[in-house]
Design brief:
Helices cover about 45% and strands about 10% of the residues. It is α/β, with parallel strands linked by helices. The protein has two domains: about 90 residues, no CATH class; about 260 residues, Rossmann fold (3-Layer(aba) Sandwich). The radius of gyration is 20 Å and the shape is globular. The model has no long low-confidence stretch (mean pLDDT about 95). The structure holds 6-O-phosphono-beta-D-fructofuranose. The site of 6-O-phosphono-beta-D-fructofuranose has 15 residues, from helix 8 and helix 14. It comes from Saccharopolyspora rhizosphaerae. It catalyses: beta-D-fructose 6-phosphate = dihydroxyacetone + D-glyceraldehyde 3-phosphate; beta-D-fructose 1-phosphate + H2O = D-fructose + phosphate. One of its GO terms (molecular function) is phosphatase activity.
Amino acid sequence: MIERLCAAHPFGPDVREALTALLEESTRGVVEPLDDDAPDHDVWAAWTEGQLGRPWAEMSFLWAESYFFRKLLGATGYFAPGPWRGVDPFAPMKRAELGSDGTAETLAALDSLPQLADADRDTAVVQAAVWGNQADLAFQLSTDASGTTSGLVSGSAEEFWSLFGQAGQVHLVADNAAGELSADLVLIDRLLTTGRAEAVVLHVKPNPYYVSDAIPNDVIEVLHQLVGSAGEASAIGHRVQDALRDGRIAVRAHPFFCAPREFSDMPDDLRAEFSSAAVTIFKGDLNYRRLVGDRHWEPTRPFADAVSHFPSPLAALRVLKSEAVVGLSADTVSSLDEGGEAWRTQGSHALVQTRS
Ligand SMILES: O=P(O)(O)OC[C@H]1O[C@](O)(CO)[C@@H](O)[C@@H]1O
């Protein structure tokens, strides 16, 4: 990742040295404090309490990844006065994905939506939102993911839609930008146009994170792409734009979304927001880890038990890329295990799980 960033940006010696030092620290060293005075310094001081001086190799996966991305931003000068302030170091990679043939094909395929019967259209937008999560640049950098799809290990589009009764405020906790976020905006448009949601809050990351995670600027980029496309993609883009203008869609970026913490530890203000939601939709693998707890659970543990801490009805739409998984039937687990594939981690299986 660091090599890719140095190839993508004309960083000077100071930034390159800071990135090399981060590579050394995170692969062979101990956890060092932040050496910048960014506005989030104090909040990170609390999150790093008791962790400084410990070898990186001993830190939990979730904690280490979040801290790594925070340190990486510090090293690129994201928080410091100078030319790199506020520059998303992952923007070239996200832009390449957004402008790719794959994304263009996905957007062109939206033209078939208006011809579908309502139920089929419902299924199609949920499937697109689930499998859109395959397009994750951090995962592609760390695995040899082939992009093949093997189906849902749990749940269905029908289960997802059964969560929605009377229209209320729906929250969507987004994951990746570009292709995945396009599919999320299509889902949001469906929620609003079918009257299942009267308003939607779209939660994105406050800072660049996990390479391709969406930040507020990515919402604008994806919207431009939709509006500038032809056919149904453009129609959806215009409807989403109108909904942003009249407040039916709000975009928020709470600092907790880049925290090395699970959702059971979320701060009171965020908990209060979710408490008023009719439904909260969680996208992606990392949000799932943070939702059910990033542990080696028995995969048959009921999903409702694992998310009992969460204050609103919820749905998780996720491609499996890491070990944590719950809510599967014993038969599903044994047949997946017998298949001999790395089904939990290779990004070829997905799930839809809900709790009303
Ligand atoms: O974008 P997603 O679906 O949250 O996936 C990110 C996943 O990729 C990884 O960074 C690498 O496998 C996981 O740690 C993480 O859960």
